[in-house]
Amino acid sequence: MISDSGRYWSAGIAVTWVPASVLIGEGLYGGWHAVLTYYDDGFFDTDPETGQVSTWGTLRTRSPVRDAKIRSGLSIAVDALLADAQRLGIEFPADSGSGPQLGYEEDMDREYHPPPKGWRETLTAEAERIGFQSSATPTEEN
Predict the structure, then answer these.
(1) What CA–CA distances, in Å, run from 1 to 40, 93, 142?
(2) How many other C-beta atoms are found inside a 10 Å radius of the C-beta of residue 49?
(3) How confident is the model over 25-65, as pLDDT tens digits?
(4) What letter would DSSP give residue 132?
(5) How far apart are CA 100 and CA 102, in angstroms?
(6) What burial class does residue 79 get, using C-beta atoms within 10 Å of its C-beta: 0-12 exposed, 13-18 middle, 19+ buried?
(7) Nearest-CA neighbor of 12 among 112, 105, 107, 74?
(8) CA dist., res. 90 & res. 39, Å (int)
């Protein structure tokens, strides 16, 4: 169902570091995946009789985004999702408690997708750059 307002919203973006695993050209490289889930304004108001069914979707980078000469792969991946979200009219409401979040996707198998050293500080700096809250609290254990 597209709600009465016709709006979609997201609580934020989750990222995952993928170590050297993608073959491009002559070598392997790693990079950042980014994903956001978005929802319509419907919530527990499904009505099959009228065809009103709440919907949601996902935007994600297709492959890991590596660092460029002048920008980090993390910034490039996040900016790509933000641009697509804007084009699709997906909003990031600030009224969801602490505002939109940027976090590390915890459901990935850390044995195969371990976050890079200093990832908490990196995510915190990126969240500040885009005006989001970071769900990665800096600690001594990275």
Answers:
(1) 7, 20, 42
(2) 5
(3) 666 778 999 999 999 887 767 778 887 788 889 999 998 89
(4) P
(5) 7
(6) middle
(7) 105
(8) 9
Place of tokens 């980014």: 34
Nearest 5°: phi and psi at 130?
-100, 0
Sign of the CA dihedral running 105, 32, 100, 135: positive
CA distance 110 to 115: 7
Mean pLDDT of the chain: 83
Question: How far is it, in rounded angstroms, from Cα 94 to Cα 37?
Answer: 16
Q: Which of 90, 89, 4, 6 minimizes the C-alpha distance to 47?
A: 4
14 CB neighbour count, 10 Å cutoff: 20
Q: Which two tokens stand for residue 66?
A: 């590596």
